[in-house]
Amino acid sequence: MDVQEFGKTIFISILAKLIKNKKILIIDFDFINNNLYSLLGVKKYPKEIKEKIKDKEFLTEFKLEEKNIQKLILKVDKNIELISSTNLIFDEKYILNKEKIEEVLKILKNKYDIILIDTTQDTRYKNINKLLIKLSDKIICLTLGNLIYLKRSLNLLEEINEEKKKIEIVYNQKNKYTINRKILELIFYKYKIIGELNYNIKYNKIINKNVNKLYIDKKTRKEFKEIINKV
Fold first, then answer.
1. What is the pLDDT at residue 113?
2. CATH of segment(s) 2-230
3. Which of 1, 54, 85, 138 has an alpha carbon within 20 to 30 A of 128's alpha carbon?
């Protein structure tokens, strides 16, 4: 499942926390921010993984086998694991370049019930985003209810129009000043809208204190559960 656009990192973090009885892998393909591990409550990235990522010999001789990929996986929770620092792992200088992403995902799909992928909005990585979209079973596009962001969302969707059957829309950070849901449905008539998330000031606390420790309130929990039931 690939997640695109606005507020995606916190969306993935809460979504993973609220999905029950599934083994979940999150892959952080946001090459610029690459901060999912912090948001998920991992205060310090393990030294062992850091050393392997920096070890050119390890990466150069890296074979696409489950035992090797496992060395780069970070345990977050009893049912959640994470691959981060993909900006280094999939660097073109090493054997795990973008052409190898498909092979890696194929191996990982056999091990996890759900793989959640956080992508980057940086246009320099457009080709990798397109590949991830192609390989995903579902694409969740988060959109904000103002004209500037709606236009950007529509432009993004046009770029991946060939995958429109996979695309589902979530109306994010809704408040009394944003565009009405009925108008949104007219704008995105080609796509399925699976839910809406009201603006919540507590999201700042979630970002600053991480979702691992902060209680997710009933309202947010209910909104996410409705989305989970439709995904």
1. 95
2. 3.40.50.300
3. 54
